[in-house]
Each structure stands twice: as C-alpha cells, then as structure tokens.
Amino acid sequence: MTDLSAFPIATRWPASHPDRIQLYSFPTPNGVKVSIALEELGLPYEAHAVNIGKKESWTPEFLSLNPNGKIPAMIDPDGPGGRPIGLFESGAILLYLTDKTGRLIPADPARRYETIQWVFFQMASIGPMFGQVGFFHKFAGREIADKRPLARYRDESRRLIGVLETRLKGRSWIMDDDYTIADISMLGWVRNLIGFYEARELVGFDDFRNVAAWLERGLARPAVQKGLNIPARG
Predict the structure, then answer these.
(1) Beta pairing class for 45-49 and 21-25
(2) How far apart (Å, rounded) are the C-alpha atoms in residues 169 and 214?
(3) Which residues are CB-contacts of 147 (< 8 A; sequence separation ≥ 6)?
(4) Is 173 helix (H, G, I), strand (E, B) or coil?
(5) CATH number given to 109-224
(6) How confident is the model over 42-95, as pLDDT tens digits?
(7) How far is CA 145 from CA 38, 40, 122, 142, 148, in A?
(8) Could you write out the DSSP letters of every residue in 77-105?
(9) Is the pLDDT of residue 166 over 70?
(10) Which label site among 27, 29, 51, 194 has the fewest CB atoms less than 10 Å from its CB?
C-alpha cells in the first residue's frame, strides 16, 4: 500500500485510496481548475474538502503542504521516478498534470509556451482582478463609501475580458481548436464573475459575445460540469 505518512496533511484528511492522486481543495475558481483537469484526464483521484470558510487552509497540516495557505494542493503518490510529490498553486498543478499525461497542452514547443502564457495571464491578471471585483461588489468591500477601488477593478476586469474577446475571435478555444489548460484555468473565473459575484452588468459582460460563447461551450463539457462541484461543499 502507498505510504503517505511523510505528508502531515494526510493525517488531518486521511486517504481512503492512498494509491490515487490526493486533492485538497474547495469549489472556488482556483480550486475547480484542478478537479476539472483531473476529470478531463480521467486520472484516478480522491478529493478532500478543505473548508476555507472555517479557515481549514490555515491549519498546520494544510500549511505543511501549501505554505501559502490557499487552495488547492495535491499529492501524487506516483510522482517523478515513482516517488510521491506534493504540489501547491493551481497553475503549477495544471502544468504538472499535462506533463504527466501529455494531454491538454499542445505537443509543439512553441504552442506549448503560448498555452502557458495564457495560464499565466489568468494567474497574474484575471484571477486577482476578478477576485477584487467580488470583494468590492459583493462582499465586505461594498460597504466602503469610496467607490474608486471598485471602479478601478471593474475597469481593469472589463479590459481583461476584452483581451479574451479579441483572442477568441474566430476561435473555439484559447488555442484555436485545442481545448487546453488555458481554457480550464479561466472558465471558473469568468463563470464566477458573472454568477457568484453578480457582476455581469457591472462589467458589461454581454458586450463580449466571443467570451460568452466560449464560456457556454466550456460549461457544456461533462467534465467541467462535474468538476465545478468537486469537492462537495458539504
């Protein structure tokens, strides 16, 4: 049997199937990237809900695997050389899974790097900006009388959606006909912006027809529909 005893996180969230990939996550835009990728790839995995509302990601066990204290994190018992590997940061995990399987990323080196740049675009731009819109539009920040921060993040989010709109003109996916981790990295964020964050009108989302069509295509994928709710919130 695979031994995960070297990972303290496995004591708080014990593995029923230690020979499978262990995912420690919560169904947020960052969390569902990895569950969607695992569903698309068909890799056996076991999902553990790390309840961020109860601050479980700040427990010593979780921090032992992800010192940044954010979901998701992952252990692959069959890592490089057949040895277990623990990983954090969703973008790094997506890249790892593509390297492990040779799927969800183009084989051509130039197109591979082009794909990676769009994953980084999500991590450095879309994720942080959309998250701030959520804070200032829906959560505690909405009570701040000075609306300049909200306007700043609204305008920047609209600009970023415009970048996607231009990229998706004449394309089914970020990488033309290839559905990749670039799409997976962004689908949950765009969905959250107009759904959970209730910012559809705020950012003028209906102006961006290419992005809207791309989102509809992505959400229609069975693996996406399943992955969006993994791990279950309970």
Answers:
(1) parallel
(2) 10
(3) none
(4) strand
(5) 1.20.1050.10
(6) 999 999 999 999 999 999 999 999 999 999 999 999 999 999 999 999 999 999
(7) 43, 44, 29, 8, 9
(8) TT-GGG--EEEESHHHHHHHHHHHHS-SS
(9) yes
(10) 51
Q: Which pLDDT belongs to residue 1? A: 57
For the chain, give every residue range classified as CATH 3.40.30.10: 8-103
Q: Quick one: which of 79, 53, 57 has its CA closest to 66?
A: 57
* CA angle in degrees (0–180, nearest 5) for 15-17-20: 105
- Tokens found for residue 40: 């698309």
Q: What is the mean pLDDT of the chain?
A: 97
Q: What percent of the chain has pLDDT over 90?
A: 97
Q: Where in the chain is the domain with CATH 1.20.1050.10?
A: 109-224
Within 10 angstroms of residue 149's Cβ, the number of other Cβ atoms is 14
- 117/125 Cα distance (integer angstroms): 11
Task: Give the model confidence (pLDDT) of 1-27 as tens digits.
Answer: 588 999 999 999 999 999 999 999 999
**Which two structure tokens, joined as six digits, stand for 97?**
């899974």
Residue 70 C-beta-side C-alpha neighbours within 13 Å: 10
Residue tagged 């740049």 (tokens) = 117
Distance of alpha carbon 198 from alpha carbon 200, whole angstroms: 6
Q: What is the pLDDT of residue 178?
A: 97
Hey, which residues does 47 pair with through a beta bridge? 23
